[in-house]
Amino acid sequence: MSTAAVPLPPTLAAMLTLAAGTFLLRLSGPVLRARFTLPEHAGKLLEVSAVLLLAALAATSALAEGDAFTGAARPLGVLTGGVLAWRRAPFLVVVLASAGTTALLRLAGVP
After folding, report:
1. Which of 101, 51, 73 is nearest to 93 (CA)?
2. DSSP summary character for residue 87
3. What digits encode the pLDDT tens for the residues 3-24?
4. How far apart are CA 81 and CA 96, in angstroms?
């Protein structure tokens, strides 16, 4: 009987490496938080930076697809969702209203 090792495909090896790295990175948050305390001002800056990063990601996805502008329907749908989320509407209502707004605008011929 041969005990030759089965080679690990490069894609699977990369996936396992990334999964382990992600797990360790996420684990480091609670572990390091117990050891270090940040000044109150730094904590506020981190909270604001997280919100700004999320807003930038939403704006980028809403306004561009590849190298081109998405048209008006998608940004208006995102704006609808943003207003409803700001007004503290339930999450399902926000998602359905955003998708519905975009779909109706595209149905009406708005790009």
Report:
1. 101
2. T
3. 667 777 899 999 999 999 999 9
4. 9
Amino acid at 67: D
- State the virtual CA torsion across 13, 15, 16, 18 in degrees, nearest 10: 120
pLDDT tens, 27-56?
998 888 888 888 899 989 989 999 999 989
pTM of the model: 0.57
DSSP character for 2? Answer: -
Helix, strand, or coil here: 109?
Answer: coil
Q: Which two tokens stand for residue 70?
A: 């998405």
The answer to whether the beta carbons of residues 99 and 78 sit under 8 Å apart is: no
3 state DSSP class of 40: helix
